[in-house]
Amino acid sequence: MSAGALALKGITRRFGGHTAVDNVSLEIAAGELLALIGASGSGKTTTLRIVAGYEVPDSGTVTLDGRDITDVPPQNRGFGMVFQHYALFPHMPVEENVAFGLEARGVPKAKRLERARSALESVGLGGAGHRGIQSLSGGEQQRVALARALVIEPQVLLLDEPLSNLDPTLRQTTRDELRAMLHRVGVSALFVTHDQEDAFAIADRIAVIRKGKLLQVGTPEDLYSHPASLGVASFIGRATILPAESLPVEDRMALTIGDVRREFTVTRAPGASSTGRAMKVVLRPDALELVSPDSSGAWTGEVITRRFAGANAVYRVRLAGDVMMEVESTKMDVREGDRIGVVISREPVPVVEDNDA
Amino acid sequence: MRSARAMRGSRGSWLIALPVLALLLWTVVYPNAAVIAGSFENGLGHWREFASSSADREALTTTLFISLASVVASLIIGVPLAFLLGRFDFPGRRILRAVATLPAALPPLVGVIAFLFLYGESGLVTRGIQRALGLHEAPWRLTGVWAIIFVHAYTMYVYVFLFVSAGLERYDTTLDEAAAGLGASSWQRLRRVTLPLLMPAIAGSMLLVFMTALGSFSAPYVFGGGIRVLSTQIVASKLNGELGLAYVETTVLALSAVAGLMLFRWLERKRKYTLAGKGSATRRVIRSRGAQIAAAVLASVTVIVLVLPHLMVVLVSFARDGAWTTQVIPPEYTLDNYRRLFSEAQLWKPIVNSVSMALIATAANVVVCFVAAYLIVLRQFSGRRLLEILVALPWAIPATAIALGLAATFNRNDLMTARVLLVGTFWILPLAYFIRDIPLVATAVEGSLRQMDPSIEDAARGLGASWWLTMRRVVLPAARPGLVAGALLAAVTAVGEFVASVVLYTHSNRPISIEILAQLRALAFGTAASYSVLLIALVLLMTLTARTLEERIA
Questions:
Q1: Are residues A240 and A96 in the same domain?
Q2: Do B459 and A71 touch (CB under 8 A)?
Q3: Are B39 and B46 in contact (CB under 8 A)?
Q4: Is B461's CB within 8 Å of A74's CB?
Q5: Could you tell me the pTM of the whole model?
Q6: CB contact under 8 A, A104 and B463
Q7: pLDDT for A306-331, tens place per residue?
Q8: How far apart are CA A193 and CA A34, in angstroms?
Q9: Which residues in chain B have their CB less than 8 angstroms from residue A79's CB?
Q10: In this structure, are A259 and A187 located in the same domain?
Q11: B464 touches chain A (CB under 8 A)
Q12: Of A202, A225, A248, which closes a domain?
């Protein structure tokens, strides 16, 4: 299977007065797995449908290996697509569903059924070919949809919330299987999700979209440690985001809570815009630590909730001035209601520009 | 750039839609417009004529009274029966459930005839009671407004029963349990929870009964005696050559239908919720001995009343023509009636006519309604709303009005005004049947297509399927249950159609229903009844064929 390199340039799509996709440019290298992540209504599904050919953009182009395919109808793109609710044909048994794309390509019946069966085997459903769609569990349907999309050997695979209909335990294992399989077949994949856990587990790179605009594209580590904007910082990972005081020294800022002021080094994402607006610091739970309340220089407060998370625990702490802060700590003996101190345990701290988000 | 394909998509839809839109405008809208225009052909002259005619005023009020009374009577029978069968278990429940919808299986005219044989002046029940009580005269005469309402109640309560039963099936009984837990008495639960939630279903069925009763022709025609209703007035005016007056009467009838439609739709829409629950099929078993016996007796009586008309038609079909005069039951039996149907060319002709005209109309319905439903459900294009309205329109127009419109339009060849001479030819009746059944078939197909996940059409195209392959392998199979059910309903209604036929038939294309009426007039009760049995048999045969067909494909 040869993977294709996909590029979106300046894609815009309006519905009436509403701009669903606003000047989005995005590149997916051959064989890369890219997740497009955003809240519902952010324009991610419209973007996916434009790539698939079900929607045509008002402006902008979609190219595959440099060839403009913006106006090519979906049946001539040869992309594989896994729909959110799988869109399996309810009146065809499993193997006919999988073989349908080959039927459309005029592959003789015996040949296409044989290929369908081997595709089913590769998703762990060998022998299920004669079963009806209704008799399949959600996880099995998801794998049939995947086999159906892959059997046509697409250059690009598109997945619309492929895991959203699976129960949580199944979802965990399916993430790893999906990533392994996509790498094994070596297809370029664009998948859309609102769940960052899915995106982190499956994708090589993640693109964050919000209100139709692409906010940032990068590896999961990039987005977590170097968010380019307030939107990305608040959407990806958990964080306490607070306005901070700039210092004359570059890369240093200060944060005052109650009567305790602390200085620390900060970092900005490369290429993040600088319009001179006030800055905010992004305090990740794992970059904070609990200390004894009388430690010098610690912000002090009261533990409100405690959530057990295996090797560590996540505490919500109410600091002076009702500032809520989430702290992840290996200290397991702190209880709700305890007085506690909080310090920054990892620097530099990411900062973003304060905007209307 | 976009717009190359976006427009191609929309242009493609228009390309498919245009022939269908044109056909519907020509056959549905144009004839009715011609009727309305015709009513004004000498200004308000015909309208004044209508307003000053006491017969017409009486016809209008009688029509409305009968229609509303039919609604009330159908509710009185249909709602309790649906509750009884839906909520309780008792001896005889299954058989009662099996026969509860039987009246709907009778073609309209056949039901009327069965009532004549049973409850008419010389009917079996009437004579039986007369003999038993030793009366000199029949205890009642099956004539006038109440006779019509009686027949309507028998045939039309089925709509109420079906709608309310379906509502009860989807009804989540935990709502009742919740109300009971909050301390509501069973009467409070019924009044405050159950009935309000069933209101959309009840209003829907009331609308259906109202429309059917409004356009009803057979019962007033046979039992009317001296009374007049609009549908019979229309035919009478047309036969008298007073076409202008007939157009006014038709317009008034159609307007009444539209008013009724708006009234009941408003009632239906007032409630914004739907019963989406799975429902639970818990039926309370009637345990008390007394209640059990009462329920069983009630069930048996109901079953007998429901089955009797069918049995009576079968019985009379074996009666020798002319032999049944003053006896309670026909005295002489023979197979001759049936033998003659199949051997005498004059009697065989209507059977061939009805079957072939029904098949032609149904085939046209299947093609046109599939395309329309496909466009309505799966395509986004600007003509969709118009198409929806055109497809639903024939449902709001009483059959007599449809027939008169066709008679007013397809009465001569005139290309300038898009008229084609069909009146007096074989084709006018299949056309009328086709128009009457458009909403039926289209609704059935739309229902099937709406159940289909629209993304499976996208999925097929994404997998490389051409438009035609997608159609053949994905859309058509999804539409199939609706197509089969819709075609069956269309064929069943068409084969027994009477109301439009009586306006438009000629001797050479007379359908079975018209021949039944002719035999009845000649007092050939046996022949009329054997036609009726044949009609019922045809309906059964078609139902079975459709069912086996569906099972074989599935």
A1: no
A2: no
A3: yes
A4: yes
A5: 0.80
A6: yes
A7: 999 888 999 999 998 899 999 999 98
A8: 11
A9: 462
A10: no
A11: yes
A12: A225
Q: Does A20 touch chain B (CB under 8 A)?
A: no
Q: Which of B7, B10, B463 to mutate to test the interface with A (most CBs of A within 10 A)?
A: B463
Answer yes or no: do A27 and A151 share one domain: yes
**Residue A271, Cβ neighbours under 10 Å: how many?**
8
Higher pLDDT, B364 or B332: B364
Best A100, A102, A159 member to test B by mutation, with max B CBs in 10 Å, is A100
| A71 and A195 both lie in a single domain | yes
Q: Lowest mean pLDDT of B123-132, B273-282, B348-357, name the range.
A: B273-282
Please tell me if residue A68 touches chain B, with a CB cutoff of 8 Å.
Answer: no
- Give the separation between CA B554 and CA B551, rounded to whole angstroms: 5
At B504, give phi and psi (nearest 5°): -110, -10
User: Under CATH, to which class is B40-316 assigned?
Assistant: mainly alpha
CATH number for position A342: 2.40.50.140
Q: Do B2 and A75 touch (CB under 8 A)?
A: no
CB proximity list for B314: less than 8 A, separation 6 or greater: B529, B533
Domain range for residue A268?
A: 230-353
Distances from the Cα of A281 to the Cαs of A225, A290, B155, B157, B432, in angstroms?
Answer: 12, 19, 76, 72, 76
Is the minimum CB–CB distance between A88 and chain B shorter than 8 Å?
yes
pLDDT 10s digits, B208-241: 899 999 988 888 988 877 788 999 999 899 888 8
What is the tens place of the pLDDT at every residue in A98-122?
999 898 888 999 999 999 999 999 9
Subunit contact A89:B456, Cβ cutoff 8 A = yes
Closest alpha carbon within chain B to A156: B462
Whether the CB of B463 is below 8 Å from some CB of chain A: the reply is yes
Q: Is A41 on the interface with B (CB under 8 A)?
A: no
- Domain annotation covers residue A1: no
Whether domain B1-27+332-554 has CATH 1.10.240.10: the reply is no
Which residue has tokens 């009483």?
B398
Q: Is A109 on the interface with B (CB under 8 A)?
A: no
Q: Output the pLDDT for position B487.
A: 92
Tell me the average pLDDT across B76-80.
93
What tens digit of pLDDT does each residue of A263-310 get? 999 998 887 767 777 889 999 999 999 999 988 889 999 999 999 988
Task: Count other C-beta atoms under 10 Å from residue B340's C-beta.
Answer: 18
Position B4 scores a pLDDT of 43
Give me the mean pLDDT over the B519-535 stretch. Answer: 91
Q: Which residues from chain A sit within 8 angstroms of residue B6, using beta carbons?
A: 56
Enter the tokens of residue B421: 């001479």
